[in-house]
Design goal:
This protein has 384 residues and is of the alpha+beta class. The protein has 11 helices and 9 strands. The radius of gyration is 21 Å and the shape is globular. The structure holds flavin-adenine dinucleotide.
């Protein structure tokens, strides 16, 4: 659903110019320094990028899902690190509060997240529980008007920068699965909360992950999201449905950028006395990529519109994440191939993108987990 096409066009134009003129020229610096320059972060704040999906009443732009994916197509046309910095505030870091938080929690935290004053992180994964997230072991024991949290979270995006964490922990040790899990808001600086060293990753330099360790970390009981125990895993899953669609949109934008770069190279690069773009085997790689991007873009827009229509899009979100992230990997591979040796050296951005986009098939549910979700939903629907 697009609320006002003209306002949206202004946002998309502003963003497209910002990506072209500010972010693309800074890509190499970010990759080399592993840091997004402070002036760029400030500009991202000014444009409102930290609050894209936070409701207007809490200081954000309140984008609908369709508007959000159109924005994601644009922002993904540069290093994914830029998107990663704003991604948690708009997605997994804030959505738990938006869908299930109490009014008081929303009023306190959301305006700070929307302005970018606070960076949010979402801490679900643990050393022993990734795909099987419901088996998590981090515990939260009630002690008077506090909970005492113990455990370790792994690969937490923006943890080194975060001012606030959404943390999934087991409040009922007798319930082993999802029903024993609650979601908490934990602020940076809370005694007993420690941030591990920053992970050295394959790609996405400038975006940071690390362990988050809780050692007898006392969190006020009012910080349990929604004020209720035992619904935290459901909150997490609601958040992931939306997140999967967002990541699928990011895959489309990244693939479009890689294909643009590959096309330009194919037109410029001469072999056997003519541009390599004249060779039909190169054309096949360009055409297959174009068709697959178009398919993914159409899927993402369709699923986004359905979500705006309040349909249950669990299956569609997983279909989009599965297809778009795998598509993005194939486009990255073909784009390297089209570049030949130049695709393997860092002078050309495709070498970096090839590494950066590999993550999309892994986080927010691996490809295999999306397959399981889709098949499980199909079988359940057939049996109803
Ligand atoms: C850079 C980065 C950022 C991340 N950011 C966050 C974050 O902000 N917050 C957060 O909570 N987590 C985050 N994660 C964690 C991420 O979501 C997990 O890594 C991911 O869900 C996979 O879990 P795992 O790494 O434990 O792999 P595993 O679950 O151990 O999976 C290993 C392999 O086994 C396969 N597999 C597992 N179960 C099955 C099955 N039943 N059937 C078939 N195959 C299966 C998987 O598909 C995969 O191929 C991040 C990870 C990375 C790398």
């Amino acid at each position: 659903m697009i609320r006002d096409q003209e306002t949206l066009n202004v946002l998309l134009d502003t963003l497209s110019r910002f990506v072209r003129e500010r972010l693309v020229p800074a890509e190499n610096e970010v990759a080399e320094t592993d840091l997004i320059p402070a002036d760029i972060v400030a500009e991202m704040r000014d444009i409102g990028l930290f609050g894209l999906c936070i409701p207007e009443e809490y200081g954000g732009l309140g984008l609908t899902m369709e508007e959000e994916v159109l924005v994601a197509f644009e922002i993904a046309r540069t290093s994914p690190a830029f998107r990663s910095l704003i991604g948690t505030n708009n997605g997994i870091g804030s959505q738990g509060l938006i869908v299930d938080g109490t009014e008081e929690q929303k009023r306190y935290y959301l305006p700070k997240l929307a302005s970018g004053e606070l960076i949010a992180s979402f801490a679900l994964t643990e050393p022993g529980s990734g795909s099987d997230a419901a088996s998590l072991r981090t515990s939260a024991r009630r002690d008077g008007d506090h909970y005492v949290i113990n455990g370790t979270k792994r690969f937490i995006t923006n943890a080194p920068e975060a001012g606030v964490f959404t943390v999934m922990a087991r409040t009922n040790p007798d319930i082993k699965g999802a029903g024993g899990i609650s979601a908490f808001i934990v602020e940076k600086g809370t005694p007993g909360l420690h941030i591990g060293k920053t992970d050295k990753k394959m790609g996405q330099k400038g975006a940071h992950t690390s362990d988050v360790i809780f050692e007898d970390c006392r969190v006020p009981a009012v910080n349990i999201i929604g004020g209720k125990e035992g619904v935290g895993f459901k909150t997490a899953m609601k958040v992931l449905d939306k997140g999967r669609l967002h990541i699928a949109a990011i895959c489309v934008g990244a693939a479009e950028r890689m294909l643009d770069d590959a096309l330009r190279y194919a037109i410029e690069r001469q072999q056997f006395g003519k541009p390599i773009a004249d060779f039909q085997l190169i054309q096949a790689m360009l055409a297959d990529s174009k068709a697959e991007i178009y398919a993914a873009r159409s899927m993402v827009l369709d699923a986004a519109r359905r979500r705006d229509n309040k349909e249950d899009i669990s299956t569609e979100a997983s279909c989009c994440k599965l297809f778009a992230s795998e598509m993005c990997g194939r486009v990255a591979d073909r784009a390297v191939q089209i570049h030949g040796g130049a695709g393997y050296v860092s002078e050309y951005s495709i070498e970096r993108f090839y590494r950066d986009v590999r993550l999309f098939r892994i986080y927010e549910g691996t490809t295999q987990i999306q397959q399981l979700v889709i098949a499980r939903n199909m079988i359940r629907n057939a049996q109803q």
